[in-house]
Amino acid sequence: MTQPDSSGGNTYDLGASEYLVYRVLMERREQDNQETGRTKFFKLSCLTDRRLIEKEGVNIGFPRHWYKYGEVVEEHSINPAVIFAPSANHQEGQAYYPANQVSEADFSLEEDLKNAIFRTANSVVQEHGTKNRKQLEQLQYREYAHDEFIRTYSDLRWHLSAESQAHEEGLKSLDHFSSELSQTEELLNEMFRTYPEEEYEEVYHYFLTWEDTMRMLVEENAHPGRQLAFLEFFIEKLSQITLRFLYRQNIPERRLESWLEEKPKHIEELDTRLESVREGLIEERPTSEIFYELSDSYDQVILTESHQ
C-alpha cells in the first residue's frame, strides 16, 4: 500500500471526510482493481468511520445515516472532487473510483490524523473489501442495527429474495416444507412484535395497514418477488420518513431541512400505494370468499354481544 504524503497544498478544499472516502477507494483499487459499486462504497466508508472512532478514538464528523438495511454516506456533504463515478460496466448503477486529478498532497491534514485514517481504511478494506453486497449489508444490520425490528425486516428481505430466485429457477419454496407457519409468516409475526411504536410513531398506522396487506399477499400465494417489492417499498418509505432522522451523524442542517420538506410527499406516496395494493387484492378475491369472511365477522360480533 502507498504511504500517505503530507507535503503540498490543498487545491480542492478537502478535509478529513474527503480523505476517508479517497483512501477507501484507493485501497479498493489497489486490492483488486475491480469496480466498487455504490453500496459497497457506502458500507466500507461507514465501517471505516466507525472503526476510526472505536479503535483510534478519532471522530472526524463523517456524515452518515441509516437507510433501509444499513448506513450510507451523505454524499451531498462530501466534496465530489475526490470521486470518479461513471456508469458501471458489470453491475447496475455507478462504479466508484478515486479521482485521478486528486493526490495525497491535496489533503492538508495533521500527520497523526492522516495516518489514523490511512491505517483504518486499509484495515477495513483488507477485511471486508472483497465481500459482496449481501455480505456487507448483513454485516451492518446484524452488528449495528439500532433495534430488533430492523434486523427482522432485513432478514425477511433476504428470505423473500431467496424465495423469488427459487421460484424463477423452478425450485420449491423453502416455505413449502413448513408444516406450520412459513418462515415468511414467522418473520411477519416478529416484525409485528418488535415494531418500536413510540420511536416510529409517525408510521405506525401505515405499518399496521402494510402488515395486514402483506399477509393478504402471503395468503394469496402471491409471487415472492411481488412480496419482496412490497416490503422494499415500505422500508424505503420508513427510512425516508423516520429512520434517517433518528439514526444520523453529522448531517448538515440544510440537508435536514430538505428531508423535512420531502416528508409530506413520502407520506402521501406511502398512503396511496398501500390503498392501491389493498384494493387490488380485495378485487382479485372471489366475492363468495369475501362474503363468508364478512359473515364470520358478523357472527362473531353477535356471539360476543350475546355474552355481554
Kindly provide the radius of gyration, computed on alpha-carbon positions and rounded to a whole number of angstroms: 24 Å
> How far apart are the first and last residues' alpha carbons, in Å?
78 Å
Total domain modules: 2
Major beta sheet, strand line-up: 1-5-4
Largest sheet descriptor: 3 strands, antiparallel
In N-to-C order, the SSE pattern is HEHEEEEHHHHHHEHH
- Number of DSSP helices? 10
Oligomerization: single chain
The percent of residues in helical segments reads 55-70%
Brief account:
Helices cover 63% and strands 6% of the residues. It has 308 residues and is mainly alpha-helical. The protein folds into 2 domains: 16-129, no CATH class; 145-306, no CATH class.
Q: Can you put this structure into words, describing what you see?
A:
The chain is mainly alpha-helical and 308 residues long. The protein has two domains: 16-129, no CATH class; 145-306, no CATH class. The protein is 63% helix and 6% strand. The protein contains ten helices and six strands, in the order H-E-H-E-E-E-E-H-H-H-H-H-H-E-H-H. A three-stranded antiparallel sheet has the order 1-5-4. The chain has a three-stranded antiparallel sheet with strand order 3-2-6. Helix 2 (38-56) runs parallel beside helix 4 (133-144), helix 6 runs antiparallel to helix 7 (201-219) and helix 7 (201-219) packs antiparallel against helix 8 (224-246). It is elongated, with a radius of gyration of 24 Å. The model is unreliable at 5-10 and 290-308 (pLDDT under 50).
